[in-house]
Amino acid sequence: MTSKSIQQQKVLQLFEDRGLLRPRDLDAIGVPREILRRLCRQGLLERVGHGLYRQPNRPFSENQTLAEVCKKFPKGVVCLLSALRYHNLTTQNPFEVWLAIDVKAHRPITDLPVRFVRLSGAAMTEGIQIVDVDGTPVKIFSPAKTVTDCFKFRNKIGLDVALEALKDCLADGQCTPDELWHFGKVNRVNRVMQPYLEAMLT
User: Is the torsion defined by CA of 120, 126, 131, 137 positive or negative?
Assistant: First the structure.
């Protein structure tokens, strides 16, 4: 077996394990990055965004776009409508991935369908869960944090969406009033959320 064939096997095995790869992921296994272009020409891989590759025939879930975006922007956190969709807290199906980034981060440039939201401090770092989506670790805000984010950004997504999420989150047992109150303080929306929360708990 030639060295190129061995390298190709290593790369394809890495795709089996992770689902999505960036060129720099090949550095860890000592394989030159140009092999990705070679595998694309052979039809064994496809490029799904700038610097992002996957296997064309591999089955993917409806959350695959989340994996693609989070692989491209590992410091981002899935939020708002995309997090609601993942947690089954909305009937909406956003065509963009809503991704939170730090307020001081440079504006990312991408051809992927992503909408960036800027957060800072505890609002950016608290309430993060890491879930596996088709072999890719994805950072996403918890149900309770997401609901309070919706109240924080109610002018962007609509108060009706926030209220639907609050109702469903409590009804499904995905969050507790204490969790909502905690993250409401983090997002400074307790006063806005309090009358709706009290009405739903009585």
Answer: positive
